[in-house]
Write a structure and sequence with these properties.
This protein is α/β, with parallel strands linked by helices and 229 residues long. It contains nine helices and ten strands. α2 links the parallel β1 and β2.
Length: 229
């Protein structure tokens, strides 16, 4: 049980490995010491360090290369999705410097131009299923070709993204049925009408329970703070 999470969600707090994404800590983006402090306050079991804007990536690489020991059992990095200026080969080269320093590097399928360019990341590469705003990477079928081109890649299963595609959760079940063997970690939150991450509601926690039961062996990363209920 993670005491910091228990008042808001005993079910989530009771999972073996839960942590926070720094992506939702918008006031401190780029200030990695402040972001780490907030992440540790949630859990020391897992963290996702999110360089969602490309300009945040150099300082994250510096942080991870300076030899500092982070107090987490599981560390993932979220690759940039905004403000992309680097060529794809240059981006992969930079991400490759982290491949042996973290447990996973999360990449959005809709940002990939040439899947084979990401092969140097090997098993550190993790593809995240997309939400209803995106043009690809949303379903098991749309992920098939990417995984065929990137056989060592893993899956980051974003539960609310899948629910935004199909509220019956049939799409979510099919992603786990077809690609669950690649599962490396979970993204967990609720979404608003614009598919923006919001604190997990009690209703969504119950709705997602069946899917989460299939993901007990991997870390769950919160993409929004848990609100008191």
């Amino acid at each position: 049980m993670i005491p910091a999470l228990a008042p808001a969600s005993p079910k989530v707090a009771g999972h073996l490995t839960v942590g926070a994404s720094t992506g939702y800590m918008t006031a401190d983006h780029g200030d990695w010491p402040a972001l780490l402090e907030q992440a540790v306050a949630t859990s020391t079991l897992a963290v996702e360090l999110s360089a969602l804007s490309e300009h945040e990536l150099p300082s994250l690489v510096e942080l991870l290369e300076d030899g500092q020991v982070l107090p987490f059992l599981f560390v993932s990095v979220h690759a940039p999705t905004k403000g992309r200026r680097l060529s794809e080969p240059d981006l992969v080269t930079i991400l490759g410097r982290l491949a042996t320093r973290v447990d996973a590097i999360v990449v959005h399928p809709d940002t990939i131009e040439n899947p084979r360019a990401y092969r140097p990341l090997g098993s550190a590469l993790v593809l995240e299923n997309m939400d209803a705003r995106k043009a690809t990477g949303r379903t098991a079928a749309e992920l098939d070709d990417l995984f065929a081109a990137l056989p060592a890649a893993g899956l980051c299963f974003d539960v609310p993204h899948a629910a935004s595609i199909d509220p019956t959760l049939a799409v979510a079940r099919e992603i786990l049925d077809r690609h669950g063997a690649r599962l490396r970690h979970v993204h967990l939150s609720s979404l608003d009408a614009g598919c923006h991450h919001r604190p997990l509601t009690a209703a969504d926690e119950e709705r997602f329970a069946e899917l989460l039961d299939r993901c007990r062996d991997v870390p769950w990363i919160l993409e929004a703070p848990l609100a008191d209920r």
